Structure to design on (196 residues):
């Protein structure tokens, strides 16, 4: 990983967390146990603090940042989808932020909530637990169902497992010129949700 100290403040990564070598960590970033940070993610703690609580994940090409004095928090089992942007906000425990969604300054996403892909959550927006947010600007559509929460938790467990898989078996390599005759396949348990 590209890791940078600034103004004497060094990122912290728990030994059980996995941060991809192409991710960038700057300054006041705290990544707790069992977390996953994907390829191309950028966590810039050069103004405010960024904390990833236990077993949360930040996927490929996400950006996490905040204004001076802010504290961006991703709660335990928080799940931040590909390309999402978090800026000075709080993501509640066991919540999902969909792909390419944006959550702005001082927004507070309640626990077990889902922010739909490409949603835009305005500054200072706040919602209760188990809120389903969609649109631009994001609005409360309804409560997250038990089935949706279970789907989210299954996906998060896959990323918790991926953290272990990466720590144990991911290594840089050269590509093959053609597939092997007995090429293995990856076996994971993640499934897409049913239509809402």
């Amino acid at each position: 990983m590209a890791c940078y100290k600034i103004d004497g403040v060094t990122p912290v990564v728990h030994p059980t967390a996995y941060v991809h070598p192409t991710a960038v960590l700057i300054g006041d970033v705290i990544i707790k146990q069992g977390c996953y940070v994907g390829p191309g993610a950028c966590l810039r703690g050069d103004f405010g603090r960024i904390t990833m609580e236990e077993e949360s994940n930040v996927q490929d090409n996400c950006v996490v940042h905040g204004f001076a004095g802010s504290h961006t928090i991703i709660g335990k089992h928080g799940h931040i989808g590909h390309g999402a942007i978090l800026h000075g906000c709080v993501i509640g425990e066991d919540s999902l932020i969909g792909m390419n969604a944006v959550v702005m300054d001082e927004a507070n996403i309640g626990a077990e909530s889902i922010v739909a892909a490409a949603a835009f959550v305005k500054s200072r927006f706040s919602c209760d637990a188990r809120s389903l947010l969609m649109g631009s600007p994001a609005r409360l559509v309804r409560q997250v169902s038990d089935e949706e929460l279970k789907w989210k938790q299954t996906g998060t467990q896959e990323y918790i497992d991926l953290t272990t898989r990466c720590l144990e078996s991911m290594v840089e390599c050269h590509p093959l010129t053609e597939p092997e005759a007995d090429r293995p396949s990856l076996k994971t348990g993640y499934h897409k949700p049913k239509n809402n």
The CA atoms of residues 10 and 27 lie 5 Å apart.
